[in-house]
Amino acid sequence: MRPVFLWQSAEDYAYLLGEKATVDFMAYSYNYLPDIAIADVAFEAAGDTPEELFRAAALAAAGVMIRLADITVTVQKTITIQAETLEDLLYQWLSELIYLKDVERVIFVEFDLTIKHIAGLFELAADCGGGEIDPAGHELGQDVKAVTYHLFEIKEVDGKFEARVVLDI
């Protein structure tokens, strides 16, 4: 059985999403970094826009916890978050998704989100689609406990946005 949290290619991504999945890596992407954090899981995410970056990071975090193709979207939720910096916004966004996994037992895999910078604050508004975790019916990965600040960063490179995130498992 292939681990669901250590993929690094489009082929592995298709495995996570299901055999017939196709992925457009032009708008966003992510890959896991197995040698960065020995006891944790690290990944890099990228996107053409902050929204695509946040989508990629959310999918990367979800992919650590569950085979994404196993999720049937049955739950819809709107999430709004404000923060002073884009880094804090990403940290809070991923923390909220982990919190919802723990409290409501839902993993979100679809995201329609916007990020605005208003009056010195970044604001994220996201309509999320996900499904309830079923240990008997889902291929589970690692249980993510939290986002860490270790090596956490967002940077803009050539007009695209990149982030490095380490998750405590």
Walk me through the structure.
The structure is a single chain. This protein is of the alpha+beta class and 169 residues long. The chain has one domain: 3-Layer(bab) Sandwich (Archease, Possible Chaperone, Chain: A, domain 1). The chain is built from three helices and seven strands. The strands form two sheets. A four-stranded antiparallel beta sheet has the order 1-2-7-6, covered by helices on one side. A three-stranded antiparallel beta sheet has the order 3-5-4, covered by helices on one side. A hairpin with a 2-residue loop joins strand 6 and strand 7 (160-168). The longest helix is centred in the middle third of the chain and has 19 residues, at 86-104. It is globular. The two termini are 20 Å apart.
Number of strands: 7
Mean pLDDT: 84
Helix-strand string: HEEHEHEEEE
For the largest beta-sheet, the strand count, sense and barrel status come to: 4 strands, antiparallel
Domain module tally: 1
Neighbour order of strands in the largest sheet: 1-2-7-6
The CATH class assignment is: Alpha Beta
Helix-strand category = alpha+beta
Q: What percent of the residues sit in helical stretches (DSSP H or I)?
A: 25-40%
Radius of gyration: 15 Å
Number of helices: 3
